[in-house]
Amino acid sequence: MRQLYDAYAPSLFGNIRRYVPEKTDAEDILQDSLIKIFSSMDSFTPKREGSLGAWMRKICVNEALMFLRKRKRLSTMELLPQLPDDIPQEDDPPPLDGIPPAALQEMIQSLPDGYRTVLNLYVFEKLSHKEISARLGISVGTSASQYSRAKALLAKKIRSYTSQKEEK
To answer: Which of 132, 154, 162, 164 is the most exposed place for a label (fewest CB within 10 A)?
Structure first.
C-alpha cells in the first residue's frame, strides 16, 4: 500500500486541486479518496495497462465533485449563463509558451467554481457536455456555456500574464 501511495498520491492530489483550490480541503479529499481506494481495491479489475491510475483518478474526481456539491458550490451553475458576457471570445487561443505549469494551474484555480469544474471535466477528464450535464445535474447548454466562458476567461488571464511578463 505504501508503494501505491508513493506512486500515485502526488498526481491524485494534483487532480483534486484542479477542482478544489484550497490545499487543506484537497488534502482531506485525498485522504477520503485513498480510504475509498484502499478499501475497495479487491473489487478493482485491471482492463488494460494504466487502468489502475485512471480508476483511482476517477474516484478522486468523484470525491472532489461530491465535496463541491456538499459545499453548494455547484448549485449556482445554472445562474451563471444569464450573467452579462463581458469576456470577449477570440478565435485564436493565446500561446502557452513560457508560462510555467504552476502559473497556469493557478489561473485555472482562480476561475469561478462552475467554470473551473466544467473546464476540468471537459479538458482533463475528456467528458462530453452530455456526460458533464448528467454528472453535475445541469443542462447540456449550461455545460457548453460554462466551458466557453471558462476558455474565454482563461485566455484573458493568459494574455494578461503574458503582457505583464513582456513589460518587465
So the answer is: 164
